[in-house]
Design brief:
By secondary structure, the chain is of the alpha/beta class. The protein contains 8 helices and 12 strands. It binds adenosine-5'-diphosphate and magnesium ion.
């Protein structure tokens, strides 16, 4: 009986605890304060979009969520699915289910896309997938993203075009299958066709038990994806939150009204 009520209680707690809770986050880099008391809450299954002018701190937020050592948290905390992750290492956050798709994906010579993704998955899941099983999974996801199979054998992002690098980020997201995927301007600099493929990847990835934080400048990706919430990040703070109607507002009026 006691055991049952304990399980029930845990279930209720899981339902009520926020998926992601960022409280009064203040972050500096090289003695310059970038985030100045940022608050954000997300629930399981939600898609949140962050828009804001250049230099507002969007990439800083993405990097600090992932635990990039260059960014120093000077106040506030980040709670992810009941765990305070503020001081955790990037790999620990990845193991808890966080993922960041970079604004500028790196090229790494010497390791193939397939080997990279297989060891990344092994590290995050703390369990190696069998080579053949992994190969099958990879092939299916690459097909979905309209990537030529021979790219699996190429060095990671090496000589990939801008669009191909972004696809390889989305591929990584599909393979790792994180609980929270953060996309930092994955859609920027892409042609309409590549944006469509990125949107296809997002649709494939997203379901009721994972969430997305999408940082974007453009409306094009949002023609395929309906966010639950849109936030404006200006000068290190969230200055406005609402539904997708905010996207239109930005296109017409920009962020001038929110400038510090
Ligand atoms: P956004 O992604 O919204 O354009 P960023 O988070 O990249 O903004 O940058 C916010 C501010 O932090 C900018 O003024 C930028 O110059 C500064 N900044 C970002 N990264 C670094 C860095 N590695 N070193 C020094 N300053 C940085
Ligand atoms: Mg940025």
């Amino acid at each position: 009986m006691q055991g049952d009520s304990l399980i029930l209680m845990r279930g209720v707690m899981e339902m009520t605890q926020p998926f992601l809770k960022i409280k009064d986050l203040q972050v500096q880099i090289e003695d310059k304060q970038i985030l100045k008391g940022l608050n954000l809450e997300m629930k399981e299954g939600e898609i949140h979009v962050i828009m804001g002018p250049n230099g507002a701190g969007k990439s800083t937020l993405a990097n600090v969520l992932m635990g990039h050592p260059k960014y120093q948290v000077i106040a506030g905390d980040i709670e992810f699915r009941g765990t305070d992750i503020t001081t955790l290492k990037p790999h620990e956050r990845a193991q808890l289910g966080l993922f960041l798709s970079f604004q500028y994906p790196q090229e790494i010579a010497g390791i193939t896309l397939e080997n990279f993704l297989r060891s990344a998955k092994g590290a995050v899941d703390q369990k190696q997938m069998k080579v053949l099983e992994f190969h099958k999974l990879l092939k299916a996801k690459m097909e979905l993203l309209e990537m030529k199979p021979e790219y699996a054998e190429r060095y990671l992002n090496h000589g990939f075009s801008g669009g191909e690098k972004k696809k390889s980020e989305i591929l990584q997201m599909l393979i790792l299958d994180p609980k929270l995927a953060i996309m930092d301007e994955t859609d920027s600099g892409l042609d309409v066709d590549a944006v469509r493929v990125v949107a296809k990847g997002v649709t494939e990835y997203h379901h009721g038990e994972n969430s997305m934080l999408i940082i974007t400048h453009h409306r094009s990706l949002l023609e395929y994806i309906e966010p639950d919430f849109v936030h404006f990040l200006v000068d290190g703070r969230i200055v406005e939150s609402g539904g997708s109607e905010l996207v239109e507002h930005v296109e017409q009026a920009g962020f001038a009204a929110y400038k510090a």
